[in-house]
Design goal:
single chain, globular, DNA binding, 5-stranded parallel sheet, 20 helices, 7 strands, Crypto/Photolyase_N_sf, 441 residues, Rossmann fold, alpha/beta, DNA Cyclobutane Dipyrimidine Photolyase, subunit A, domain 3, Serine Threonine Protein Phosphatase 5, Tetratricopeptide repeat, 46% helix, 3 domains
């Protein structure tokens, strides 16, 4: 333990270039050891062939190979972050830990614990503490940077979007942080700790995260194609923004360059939900509109199982659920329908659906998932009114009238093998209105 070093902690920013925290670390006084921690607090709750863990692992190996070309590497650890940092302090003369901010409730609690520990460790002749520095990287605006004039958070998207755009300065906010010229400040050791998937008790998933596609054509035609699930008119950008394999600044640049407001607005929706979760952390478990927690959910487990397996008898709902189970992805238009169906046709608690999506979605992001589920249930910010209930039959006519999407995922549709509708739409709608009205009025 001779050379003083800084630690850069990769989390939701799995890329070497245009990574603000990594850039700042490389400009520091001491050589940088890049690390990643497979957090057992998170992994222990996941299935052993989770596709997202495979994606993270494969991405880290590519990053590690790139760093080894620079005479360095990426140190990989498995365990509770606090335990890992206690070991790092034993193994290296750590001066500072640098990382990019994460806004989810668990992440904030974890970072507070790490910072308090580092601040308790005395180093050097002057009895100093280890620094803990965080940077904004996964969003353009964070926390309370976009709020009302009186400082209150926005709880409706459109005024948030308008204030966001009024504050936005492309030259300043979309600066690209190139790191390739500064990799000489990495800790020179290509044999930093590595792990295999089996070391963290996982195996390779057969489900692959698709590459994102953000071409000028896709952006230009986005609003024309994005609502039709049979067309591949979406970017598949979600997992890459979630895990930071792509920079949000570069994606914003593309949206602005193509002058596509709809695509740009979708990126702003993501930040809207992030600031909602930051301002209102209770919403990860409680309804934003507290009176909606009085709903007398039926929570029928057999009906929930039919929803999960895509055997409800409503073809567009079933196609979406089967696509999710098979690929880890579901078209956004269909996500709204299956969520509405669960909450309003079946009267099953939105938290059940949110938890299932959290297990299955490749692009699972807590703030957006909670926000969208509460939107569907009518209980969240800027939510659909409770009496807005999607008709799963007419939705087919609007968005998959040729049944291309349905037939792809429900091949037995239209045959005697396809199940009958598990509930009558009209009866389910009337039941929903009665139960909701009793709870919220």
């Amino acid at each position: 333990m001779s050379k003083k070093v800084n630690i850069f902690w990769f989390r939701r920013d799995l890329r070497l270039d245009d990574n603000i925290g990594f850039y700042k670390a490389l400009h520091g006084k001491f050589p940088v050891i890049p690390i990643f921690i497979f957090d057992s607090e998170i992994l222990d709750k996941l299935p052993k062939n989770d596709a997202r863990v495979t994606f993270i692992f494969d991405t880290l190996q590519k990053m590690r190979n790139e760093l080894q070309k620079q005479g360095s590497s990426l140190a990989m650890y498995h365990g509770k972050p606090l335990d890992i940092y206690k070991q790092l302090i034993e193994d290296f003369d750590v001066q500072n830990v640098i990382t990019n901010r994460d806004y989810e409730v668990y992440a904030q609690d974890r970072d507070t614990e790490i910072q308090e520990y580092l601040n308790s460790v005395r180093i050097g002749e002057d009895d100093e503490t280890i620094g803990f520095y965080t940077y904004k990287d996964q969003v353009i605006f964070e926390k309370d940077e976009v709020v009302k004039d009186d400082g209150d958070p926005y709880v409706v998207y459109t005024p948030f979007k308008n204030k966001w755009k009024g504050k936005f300065d492309a030259d300043k906010d979309l600066k690209i942080y190139y790191t390739s010229q500064h990799l000489g400040n990495l800790y020179q050791n290509t044999r930093l700790p590595n792990l295999s998937l089996s070391d963290i008790n996982f195996e390779h998933s057969p489900i692959k995260v698709p590459d994102y596609e953000v071409t000028p054509t896709l952006i230009q035609e986005y609003e024309k194609t994005r609502n039709f699930p049979a067309q591949d008119g979406t970017s598949h950008l979600g997992p890459h923004l979630r895990f930071g394999t792509v920079s949000v600044r570069k994606m914003m640049k593309k949206a602005i360059a193509e002058k596509n407001e709809v695509f740009w607005n979708e990126l702003i929706w993501r930040e809207f939900f992030m600031q909602i979760l930051w301002h209102f952390p209770k919403t990860q478990e409680k309804s934003f509109r507290s009176k909606y927690d009085r709903i007398d959910w039926r929570n029928n487990e057999d009906e929930f199982e039919k929803w999960k397996t895509g055997t409800t008898g409503y073809a567009l709902v079933d196609a979406g659920m089967r696509q999710l189970n098979k690929t880890g992805y579901m078209h956004n238009r269909v996500r709204m329908l299956v969520a509405s169906f669960l909450c309003k046709h079946l009267l099953i608690d939105w938290r059940w659906g949110e938890t299932y999506f959290a297990e299955k979605l490749l692009d699972y992001e807590q703030s957006s998932n909670v926000g969208n589920w509460q939107w569907a249930a009518g209980s969240g910010v800027d939510a659909a009114p409770y009496f807005r209930i999607f008709n799963p039959i007419t939705q087919v006519d609007k968005f998959d009238k040729d049944h291309k999407y349905i037939k792809k995922w429900v091949p037995e549709f239209g045959t005697k093998d396809y199940p009958e509708m598990m509930v009558d739409h009209k009866e389910a709608r009337e039941r929903c209105l009665k139960i909701y009205k009793a709870a919220v009025s």
